[in-house]
Amino acid sequence: MIETVGLTKKYGSFYALKDLNLTVEDGTVFGFVGANGAGKSTTFSILATLLQPTAGDAFINGQSVTKHAHEVRKQIGYMPDFFGVYDQLKANEYLDFYGASYGLKPKEREVLIPKLLELVNLEQKRYEYVDFLSRGMKQRLCLARALIHDPKILILDEPASGLDPRARVEMRDILKELKAMGKTILISSHILPELAEMCDSIGVIDSGELIAQGSVAEIQAQLQSEKMLRVKTAGPTREAVLFFENDPFISKIVESPEKQLIQFLYRGTEEDQLKLLQKAIERQLPILSFSEEETDLEDVFMAITKGVESK
């Protein structure tokens, strides 16, 4: 389990992190969402024992990152947003070097490295020099490096940064496989829809402060004082629009007669929404469908951070 308690990092009068408290349960994928400079990399550097906090502490399976850094490093695999590779080494030599650094015996490395290359879809590039690999391949190779000592926890800082769409899909599929293997994964990104798909829960950080935490559905529910409803009709929309205009919970009606579609914001409860549909049926309006449009993680992120930026 990963836990931070009052984690703070200050540079002069500037707070890179301010009283950060979060918990990531074993075997889950936690998405850390925030714009550039929000505090994601600072948090990850502290968790990886590379940076000392000004105040507070963080714990990896009960071990303090400030007091038991050596023990913490055995349990984590860390992939920074900017990483170095040794260009004069081949892919298998690169992993062999890091395996030796972690104290793995030659026979162990001989068995492990082909498995890791297969996991990250680089088995065909085993004897390729690192500097000849594409950016996406280098990213996957560095993920294999983070796995070389079979850590329980992965801390991945922007692992899909700078990748093309195909490479992002490949990275996402690998992370899903790692989750299925029981790894606990803490991942940061601004590629918000992808996080929504793969994460069990998310935390939104802005200006060094955690401003929302929970499942995607929970955070959406907190924000959605107004829901976007979508009504499809079997005929002309005018009669239905006139009906919905009289409801006190409805605003911003958008009519698309050519598509026989009506959309509007609704601020009533689910019970109110049910009563509205019942009234529409009693009026015998030609309604084919009546549904709530889902808000994706990007909409949620923009809505939350808009409030912070306006302070």
Describe this structure in words.
Strand 9 and strand 10 form a beta hairpin. The longest helix is centred in the middle third of the chain and has 16 residues. The chain is elongated. By secondary structure, it is an alpha/beta fold. The protein has two domains: 212 residues, Rossmann fold (3-Layer(aba) Sandwich); 83 residues, Alpha-Beta Plaits (2-Layer Sandwich). Strands 6-7-8-3-9-10 form a six-stranded mixed sheet, with helices on both faces. The protein has a four-stranded antiparallel sheet with strand order 2-1-4-5, with helices on one face. Helices cover 38% and strands 28% of the residues.
* Rg result: 24 Å
* Total beta strands: 14
Distance between the termini: 33 Å
Order of the strands making up the biggest sheet = 6-7-8-3-9-10
Fraction of residues in helix:
25-40%
| Averaged pLDDT | 89
Would you identify the CATH architecture of the largest domain?
3-Layer(aba) Sandwich
Secondary-structure element sequence? EEEHEEHEHHHEHEHEEHEHEEHEH
Strand content: 25-35%
Sheet/helix structural class: alpha/beta
Instruction: Report the total helices.
Output: 11
Q: What do we call the CATH homologous superfamily of the largest domain?
A: P-loop containing nucleotide triphosphate hydrolases
Protein name: ABC-2 type transport system ATP-binding protein
Keywords: ATP-binding, Nucleotide-binding, Transport
Domain ABC transporter: 2-232
InterPro entries: AAA+_ATPase, ABC_transporter-like_ATP-bd, P-loop_NTPase
